[in-house]
Amino acid sequence: MIKASTKQEQRRRKPPLGLRLAPYLFLLPNTAIFVLFTIWPAINGFNISLYSSSNGRTFRWEGTGNYQRILSDDGFWGVVMNTAIYAVAFVVLSVGIGIFLAVLVDQQGRGRSFFRAAFFIPVLISPVVVGLIWNWMLERQNGLVNTFLGMEIPWLVDDNLALVAIIAVGVWMQVGFYMLILLAGLQSIDPTLYEASGMDGASRWLQFRTITLPLLQPSILVVVVLATIHGFQAFDYIYTLTGGGPVGATTLIVQYIYENGFVSPIRYGAAAAGSVLLFCVVFAITIVNYMIGRKREAV
Amino acid sequence: MARKKTNTARLLIAAGATVLLAACAPGEVTNEGSSSEGAAPEVQTVDPAEFAGETLSYVYFTDGPDEQATRDLIAGFEDEYDVTVNLEILPYADLVTSVQARLSGGNAPDVVRLTSLTDFRADLLDLRTYLGEDYAEEFLPGPVTGATGDNGELLAVPSDATLNGPFVNVDMFEEAGVELPDPADPWTWEEMVDAATEVQEATGSDYAFAIDKSGHRLSTILSQYGTALVDGNEVALDPQKAEQALAPLVEMMADDRMPRDFWLGSGTRYEGANEIFLAQATPVYLSGNWQVGQFAANAEFNWAVAPNPCADECGGFPGGKYMAALAEGPNPALAAEFIRYMNTAENQETFVAAGGFLPTRADLSEEGVQYPARQADMDMFLQDLERTPELGYEANAAPAFSGAGTALVEALSRVVAGEQDLGTAMSDLQQSTQSLVEELAP
After folding, report:
1. Which residues 266-295 of A are in CB contact (within 8 Å) with B?
2. Torsion angle, CA of B238/B239/B241/B246, rounded to 10 degrees?
3. What percent of chain B has pLDDT over 90?
4. Does A142 touch chain B (CB under 8 A)?
5. Chain A residue nearest residue B438, CA to CA
């Protein structure tokens, strides 16, 4: 008897079908666009990686042939090494400098709006323009940097220096964006924590270590994930800055994919296989980052 | 129970995805190459009056001054045939990918201007179908080589030819008191390098010699030393000859007679050294006839085209553009007629004269072309065209040429950067070219 009344009650309480379907209907347009422009191309990209094309349009079944060819290519492993060095350095420097700048512009004082804007402006510049500007600035004989230093440092034509140069330019270009995320994180920290610790005699450094860093961890995690993705997908400004040279020293994996897919002789299969491998790596690193972040949060 | 249902659903989704994936092959799937027998197709005659009211799309990239000439010729074609031509001008860098995207989408244009047929060979119309077996004989055999399919098809018409060759700063040579070579009796490579070095020392220019960072331009030197990267579907590179050919460049870059930073600083990208020449930073610059127009407009000094230097061979290295019709285009008969019209002797002369190109028609080559300016320089290129060995045409037409050219640039970069000696780099290049040829074999 009680059961029956509960069921009746539930039936009475159940919203009408239209209302229940409404959220799904609202989600439908975005879901359709997401499937059409993200999921479907991703599936098709994986599919293309299983074929080879001799003229870019007529495809032959290859199975894992493209993957085997890429993985046995010395050039690919050189590119992987460059990408790994770039990504690690980019993440470490971007996050480190991002935190430093965020703390700096979080201080009360005159001109902080100016500095916030100044550090953020490079994010707004087109990466191609960034590449061209820095190409002129780092030029050996007439570049602004060498003129200022009064030296002739071959920034863009020495293997090691060129890699350092693209990392520095990449960090300069993106760090303002990370600074902004971290700044938002800093501003959500309750100021009374600093007041209380100050009254207990804690130094600024101790406050930073024991209050700022732990409470900033969710923002740091976001920044680390974003910087990792940016680090592995860097291409546009590097291509205009160094073209991947000298002698492939600054060729990263996206350029490798681009050159396979869009430079004659076109190899769509190899380009797609490279993209799938890149996706797997970025996906794995992102998952690991999240897991580490969650573990820390739980602690 | 609920878990079991979920697992079944997951399995069904996975199976569905697998079926979906198997069904969505990326395009036309084939197991073998073309099965064409090579027999000339039966010529289809079409009454030109039948074209009236039709529309044709022409995908084009421009080198600059050729655009207006093309528009004028198109206007003439539209008047004569009562048709509409949609001229679609694309940036050169987007041409191949854009046309391939249109082909994949079932929206093939009728006619395309190309620099290489490599990425389209399977999609091109055999023009013999409409223009006849003998039509190719109206053109020079060298440029036709690049337009000929593996089974003798005429896959395109060579619409203009280009040739690599050296430009010299006449003012700097005069200031240094160094004589220019006799056009009829070209200098040797050693003589050219010595002359350039002497001018550099006398005038204090930054460099003695500059060359575009391009596999095509480097192939000029290989050709003069009697070798090439590829020959049809085979590797043609003789590493010893290549070593001999490229050694002067390596030496000049080592002692700053050539711009080393220019060579190393742009990775795999093509770079033209025209600005170095225009800035009078070098007395000799190896590029090609397409630079004549811009030097005529921009150079603030006296310059001239010199004959290509000789080693084992003389002459330059050929290139050029093609007009091709796509087999899947909506109107192949009109496309073939359009290509024929644009390449009559009169119309090709108009086009090459305006663009500063070299003719590909045998009759024009014999009679010569009257250019609006710099006739002597263009004649120098025409004269060198006659000295150009056949191997250059074979190499430039090979499917693996562009990829091997990029590999050549990278190989030389490794040597210039001190990562490899020239001999090893050339042996490695021979092997990588072999792999490329095997990969791209039809």
Report:
1. 266, 268
2. 130
3. 71
4. no
5. A54
**Alpha-carbon distances, residue A78 vs A84, A85, B132, B227 (angstroms):** 10, 11, 51, 30
In this prediction the pTM is 0.84
Q: In terms of CA atoms, which chain B residue is nearest residue A63?
A: B22
How large is the average pLDDT for residues B173-181?
A: 96
- Residue B36, pLDDT > 50, answer no
Cα(B7)–Cα(B18) distance, rounded to whole angstroms? 16
Given a cut of 50, is residue B22 above it in pLDDT?
no
pLDDT band at A22 (very low <50, low <70, confident <90, very high): very high
Say if CB B385 and CB B418 are below 8 A apart.
no
CA-to-CA distance for B427 and B239, rounded, in angstroms?
Answer: 6
Q: How far apart are CA B240 and CA B225, in angstroms?
A: 10
Does residue A3 carry a pLDDT above 70? Answer: no
- Residues of chain B in contact with residue A54, where contact means CB-CB under 8 angstroms, are 33, 122, 439-440, 442
CA nearest A282: which of A237, A225, A238? Answer: A225
Query: In the numeric block, which tokens belong to residue B367?
Result: 């009679």
- What single string gives the DSSP state of each residue in A49-99? TTEEESSSSEEEE-TTHHHHHHHT-HHHHHHHHHHHHHHHHHHHHHHHHHH
Q: What is the pLDDT at residue A57?
A: 61
Between strands B157-169 and B284-288, the pairing is: antiparallel
What mean pLDDT is predicted for residues B154-174?
96
Q: Which of A140, A154, A251 is opposite residue B267, by nearest beta carbon?
A: A251
Count of residues making up chain B: 442
pLDDT in the model for residue B18: 46
Residues in contact with B94: Cβ distance below 8 Å, sequence separation at least 6, in sequence order: none
State the first-to-last Cα distance of chain B, in angstroms, to the nearest integer. Answer: 57
Q: What is residue A214's three-state secondary structure?
A: helix
Query: What residue type is assigned to position A105 of the chain?
Result: V
Mutate to test the interface with B, among A236, A264, A266, A275 (most CBs of B within 10 A): A264
Given the structure tokens 């090691």, which residue do they identify? A160
Q: Report d(CA B380, CA A32) in Å as an integer.
A: 62
Q: For residues B408 and B430, what is the distance between their CA atoms, to the nearest angstrom? A: 9
| Angstrom distance (rounded) from CA A269 to CA B23 | 17
d(CA A289, CA A294) in angstroms, rounded, equals: 9
Cβ pairs bridging A and B (under 8 Å)? 128
In whole angstroms, give the CA distance from residue A136 to residue A169. 13
| Separation CA A124–CA B117 (nearest Å) | 40
Peptide linkage before B332 cis (omega within 30 of 0): no
Interface of A with B in 219-258 (CB under 8 A): 239, 242-248, 250-251
First to last CA, chain A: 49
pLDDT in tens, A119-172: 999 999 999 999 999 999 999 988 999 999 999 999 999 988 999 999 999 999
Which residues on neighbouring strands pair with residue B164, listed in sequence order?
Answer: B288
Instruction: Give the span between the Cα atoms of B246 and B223, in whole angstroms.
Output: 11
* Gyration radius (Cα) of chain A, Å: 25
From the list A46, A56, A245, which residue is nearest B267 (CB)?
A245
pLDDT at A1: 47
Is the pLDDT reported for residue B15 higher than 50? no
How high is the pLDDT of residue B294?
84
**How far is residue A116's CA from residue B369's CA, in Å, rounded to a whole number?**
64
CB atoms within 10 A of CB A117: 12
Model confidence over A43-55: pLDDT tens digits?
A: 989 999 998 875 5
